[in-house]
């Protein structure tokens, strides 16, 4: 695996907003077919890091490499055109639009020509439903259903299936399981595994260690804008990671108190 | 089949229309049910409905346009000044009037996309600006607040005549515009962008939709529609007044809301807007046939509006939870 360069790599990325330094020399790699879990408490700089990966923010200094070559993203659209897709906590979709319509927002399939162009509802619905079912969500079988009628897990799955359908190579999942129940979260984790199996590079952002351990190959813990620990699967226990995220001994201290 | 029709978001608007129509039919009798009644509410629906269509598009996209109330008289006075006061050809006056609408719409769209001012406030601002300019220039040029115009027979027939002396030609313009907007919103991919814009602007932009251009197009369409009604008015009445048009601001918004468009944006349909417009027009005109004090008409419209807003959310929830086939247990 070390022979192919990582799909996306950050080298010594710093990001500051005016006088406030948010990220300090962040270095990360994510390989194709691998899940990188980015762990961190609220305010650790996770969302700034995601936005830097997705082209929303430009790093103040440092390098971004795609397939081993240095690059910069001029904006979110540039990043997504090069295969970096971000899926937000609530799926980033349109609750009152149908599955078929929301799947193809901005890239609507049409039939007819010139001024008589029509949105091809039938084809949009078929492709959208097939894309979601290929990810194992067989319960979605009607492309006319409104996205708002889907469960949280199904919405996430729809958004991930959409990103994959449109050629994403790097999938950034921003707290996909945070607002979900146990069953729904398991559902999303299965989708993450499926995306990984298909050879996507996945960046999975979460503060739920259990969820990270279930799918992650590689872990990075972010504390106050810096990488506090960087390790591979099986190198640390759940307790160690939780303690790291909480900034040291807090959790162990709490447990000791309760005895 | 019937159940799925009931679940359509327009079902509420349709039921409202049936109730209102039966109510006024019972009070108004054969006169309301015959040609006088129909022409009276259809004429009203055509005028307000023409403006309500693009207002509906804007509201689906999460924006408002108050300035239509000032664009309408600005357009009719422009036409009247060019072709009445200066006696230039009427086609030039019509083009001038419509251009005023497109221009104000363009300014609205640019300001809405370039600033963070909510469109409600912004278009109130442009409304007062356009009002002041209209009044100032009219007095400066014509020396009064009203300008007369004698239209040529062809323009009069196309824009200002009435079939059988009752059904204004504007009804057909309205129906044509309904077909165009329905095509744009529900058939053409452009409509998908409008819904996406109202659903989540950030996601829409990330999906590659040219959101700024889309907003400007919609404001130009509403400016054009208000100007069209203004131009048609000056041709059918033979004069233009500075004070005309303000009733269209709230009336067009009410038609759209009664028609089931969500105030928060993201949902609505042309069928709903047309039903809302007809409901509004039936109440507005039916009251004169009913023998009731005309002032009660406003109470009914107010009640309809509130009922519509309450039921819109209910129908929306039903639509969202609706699954066509019986799937496995949730």
TrEMBL record, chain A:
<dbReference type="InterPro" id="IPR003439">
    <property type="entry name" value="ABC_transporter-like_ATP-bd"/>
</dbReference>
<protein>
    <submittedName>
        <fullName>ATP-binding cassette domain-containing protein</fullName>
    </submittedName>
</protein>
<keyword id="KW-0067">ATP-binding</keyword>
<keyword id="KW-0547">Nucleotide-binding</keyword>
<dbReference type="Pfam" id="PF00005">
    <property type="entry name" value="ABC_tran"/>
</dbReference>
<dbReference type="InterPro" id="IPR027417">
    <property type="entry name" value="P-loop_NTPase"/>
</dbReference>
<dbReference type="InterPro" id="IPR003593">
    <property type="entry name" value="AAA+_ATPase"/>
</dbReference>
<dbReference type="InterPro" id="IPR050107">
    <property type="entry name" value="ABC_carbohydrate_import_ATPase"/>
</dbReference>
<dbReference type="GO" id="GO:0005524">
    <property type="term" value="F:ATP binding"/>
</dbReference>
<feature type="domain" description="ABC transporter">
    <location>
        <begin position="8"/>
        <end position="249"/>
    </location>
</feature>
<dbReference type="GO" id="GO:0016887">
    <property type="term" value="F:ATP hydrolysis activity"/>
</dbReference>
TrEMBL record, chain B:
<protein>
    <recommendedName>
        <fullName>Xylose transport system permease protein XylH</fullName>
    </recommendedName>
</protein>
<keyword id="KW-0997">Cell inner membrane</keyword>
<feature type="transmembrane region" description="Helical">
    <location>
        <begin position="270"/>
        <end position="290"/>
    </location>
</feature>
<keyword id="KW-0472">Membrane</keyword>
<feature type="transmembrane region" description="Helical">
    <location>
        <begin position="41"/>
        <end position="61"/>
    </location>
</feature>
<dbReference type="GO" id="GO:0022857">
    <property type="term" value="F:transmembrane transporter activity"/>
</dbReference>
<feature type="transmembrane region" description="Helical">
    <location>
        <begin position="171"/>
        <end position="195"/>
    </location>
</feature>
<dbReference type="InterPro" id="IPR001851">
    <property type="entry name" value="ABC_transp_permease"/>
</dbReference>
<feature type="transmembrane region" description="Helical">
    <location>
        <begin position="120"/>
        <end position="151"/>
    </location>
</feature>
<feature type="transmembrane region" description="Helical">
    <location>
        <begin position="242"/>
        <end position="263"/>
    </location>
</feature>
<feature type="transmembrane region" description="Helical">
    <location>
        <begin position="296"/>
        <end position="315"/>
    </location>
</feature>
<feature type="transmembrane region" description="Helical">
    <location>
        <begin position="216"/>
        <end position="236"/>
    </location>
</feature>
<feature type="transmembrane region" description="Helical">
    <location>
        <begin position="12"/>
        <end position="35"/>
    </location>
</feature>
<feature type="transmembrane region" description="Helical">
    <location>
        <begin position="68"/>
        <end position="86"/>
    </location>
</feature>
<keyword id="KW-0762">Sugar transport</keyword>
<feature type="transmembrane region" description="Helical">
    <location>
        <begin position="92"/>
        <end position="113"/>
    </location>
</feature>
<comment type="function">
    <text>Part of the binding-protein-dependent transport system for D-xylose. Probably responsible for the translocation of the substrate across the membrane.</text>
</comment>
<keyword id="KW-0813">Transport</keyword>
<keyword id="KW-1003">Cell membrane</keyword>
<dbReference type="GO" id="GO:0005886">
    <property type="term" value="C:plasma membrane"/>
</dbReference>
<keyword id="KW-1133">Transmembrane helix</keyword>
<keyword id="KW-0812">Transmembrane</keyword>
